[in-house]
Amino acid sequence: MDNKKLTIKRIVIFYLLAFLPLAIVTPVLCLYYDEMVYVSKKENVAAIVYALGAFGMFAPAIANLLTRWITKEGMENSYLALNLCGNGKYYLASVGVKLLEAVLGMFLVWKVFFGDVPLTEMFPGEDMSTKLAGFVLQLAFSIIVFFPAFGEEWGWRGYLSPKLEQVMSKPAAILVGGILWGLWHAPLTIAGHNFGVDYPFYPWLGIGAMCLMCTAMNAFLTLLTERTKSIYPASFAHMINNNCSVMVLMTLFSTEETFDKMQKLQSIKVFAIFMPLYLLVGIVSFVIYMRKNK
């Protein structure tokens, strides 16, 4: 019982340390600039919100370290080893699944919103070598995105998920962990990140959508982390998810005219189209995770 109380205490301390920086800094910036900063058209604000996002993504890793220090836990079970031997398929899946998800999402968006435009016009084949080169460069840029992605993953999957599984069942831990991760995004969602502010039931619909997506992703990322006992596969998956998303691929492969039309769509609607892909990956990951645990 004492161990369970200590684990719950660590969960609470970790979450507060991870959540409070964004919860404090984001509204302060919105008040200072007198607008929701993620929908601002000012160039100086754009630079600020980019820094805010990177700062926020490192908060869970810092919370991991501080919680271990405050509660005298030490660095046991830190998930920092690469553990490459025998885990190649999980490292490949971390990148491959997310790339496939983005490509399928891109074609889903075409089918739903641009079905009257022939596929060859929306994604023309001319000068494809240049577009593929741009895609390779985008993948290379992912290395920079890896570091903030690692910041989140070492907190959520490297600390919170294992702690939740010590005090509740694995299905409950994936659900609760996903919701807590989604709520962590709430200050940014309110400030217009991901979906803007011009959608129905703002900001509650956006917060709910983030909780749903994060729960689905949590199943996949937890599977990667627990199978490898390493945080790096989940970090790679998070990196690809953020840097090679549907919108990024639309920018790289569709025509400028098509992308301009895409920009006018409500982000929440676009998100709803490829959300089933997140759910499918999440459900399959959950089933694999539970079967192997049995």
List the keywords:
12 helices; 0% strand; mainly alpha; 294 residues
Characterization of this structure:
The chain has helices at about 1-35, 45-70, 90-115, 120, 130-165, 170-185, 185-190, 205-230, 230-245, 245-255, 255-265, 265-294. It has about 290 residues and is mainly alpha-helical. The protein has one domain (about 1-294).
Q: Mean of the pLDDT scores?
A: 92
**Over all CA atoms, what is the radius of gyration?**
20 Å
Q: What summary fits the major beta sheet? A: none
- Name the beta content range: under 5%
Tell me the distance between the termini: 25 Å
Please state the structural category.
Answer: mainly alpha
Oligomer: single chain
Shape assignment: globular
- Name the helix and strand elements from N-terminus to C-terminus, one letter apiece: HHHHHHHHHHHH
Which consecutive residue ranges, at least 5 long each, have pLDDT under 50?
Answer: none
Total E-strand runs = 0
The proportion of residues forming helix, as a percent range, comes to over 70%
Number of H- or I-type helical stretches: 12
- What's the number of domains? 1
